[in-house]
Amino acid sequence: MIYQLAEASQLWLDTDAQAWNVEQAARMERFGDDAQPFWERAYALGKRGSFLPDDRYVDWAVQRRKEVEGYYRQTIHALARLYVARYGTAGASESLLVLRTYWQQYPKDEDALRLLMQVLSQQERYQEAVEYYDQLCDFLQEDDDQPDERTKDIAEYCRTKQIQYGSVAFSERGKQSQQHILAFPFPLAVQDTLEISHVLDGAFPLNTSRRAMLQQIVGWVGATAFSPQSSVNMNVSCSFSPSTSATVKRHSLQKISTETLNDFSQLTETCRSLSEGNELKTAERVLWSYLPQVETLAQVQSPYQKIAAAITSQVYVLAASLVGHHSDLQSRQSCSERAIWYAECAQDVELHVAALRQLAVTFDYLALPKNVLQTYQRALPHLKHVSPRLQACIYSALSGVYAQLQHEEEAHQFMGLAYEKYPEDKQNEPGYLRTINASYHTLILWDGLNHLELGQPLKAHNILQQIPTMGPTEQIPERIRVEFLNYQARALMAVGDLEQACAYIETAVEASTAIGSRKRFQESFAVFQQMKDVWPTEMRIHELRDLFLQRMINHME
Fold first, then answer.
1. How far is CA 480 from the centre of its chain?
2. Spatial CA neighbour of 188 closest among 221, 229, 164
3. Is 537 exposed, middle or buried (0-12, 13-18, 19+ CB in 10 A)?
4. Disulfide: which of 76, 114, 202, 323 matches 331 by Cβ 3.0-4.6 Å?
């Protein structure tokens, strides 16, 4: 049997939709109208991937592929510039997300890289801009090529500024603008330690040993500077071996005992508990202060090496979550990969699977579904060796990937496994399972989202209603509750409930502002953008727009 396609005039491909949206956006800009919805739709279509990637040498496919990539490139530049122009500093994070996603696909596109570096330099994130430039040089070196002069000029400017403001850009102006909350000065001063102790005492009482531990951390950090970026960019060898830093600190290492490692473990649990409330910033500050020391222990041969490696892996699992709240997906990916490596060194299968989960979530944020699927597939052979709760977490996440790919049978199959595996008794399970959100509410979330992805919004809404989110709850960490709110708003929008969808987004915006999560705020804004397309003239949508603008203005101030 032979099938014949209809004539071209009767076909409407996603590539045609992409070209149409680009043309409409360009026309809107010429007449001074709002082109943003058209650029965003073109972007959503363009990031799906290359046109007929398997037909590399068919003339018509090659030509069409070049046209599609050209439209995508035009969209990236237009959308990135539009976000910055329209929303100022607050819009820069949206621009960075668009540019980073694109650069993951086209790492040799210098036009996009220059724009990315410019946006980063506007935020005084010079080190990060230089790191992107160094990656480009590595890629081009494989082809015996060099960056062009314009790219070199921007890189040189960023290097100069980096030196002027310090090796990691820890300037007072950067702290005041709060454009990169993770960048804070080291070494810790005594008053910083006392401030941390005071906050921790308020939520989690510190005994004399804990307070002494914080003081010891300050002594270990000494005169060296350390930052999240410097940690995640360090080269990790393929096997444990003494490093230069370890040799320098050998005197301190000789004092290490099981009690010291227990202190590090308790600090990690404290940071985890802080991150579940409204203390993300404090959790970051404490975590990055002791991470270098426990990581050094994990790299030096000793009777405590495997224990130190396991603790280091747990810290990086948590660090990946924390940097993700600043939409720093590059650091989130690096932290996740280091968590995997240290879990392997500790020979801890459960921790290894939990770290893989963090990496998969990162790829999901980067809109790389194939990478997400491959990462979860890496975890599958290990599931028989991990707790039922972690098994359920991976199975439910896998079901979500298949739902996104419109594989309904596999989505339902893995969701059934997730419900079957989830245990009634959750006692004595490791705390890092909370970090990766291995909870029953997450199963319900994925179940609802699956129906949403598969075009069944009413079922999705009914399932998601089982999650209590409109007020803070002890059952759900605050950063996770905000994520649930955003997804519930999506479901309400799909069933046409304007008032409830707006109420959920308003609650999510207030909560994300309270905990200082840029990531959750951006997720709320993305849902709002979709709602604006559905209800463009409704007064409630205009009120939501004003709410977002006010929060962005407050953030800039």
1. 13
2. 221
3. exposed
4. 323
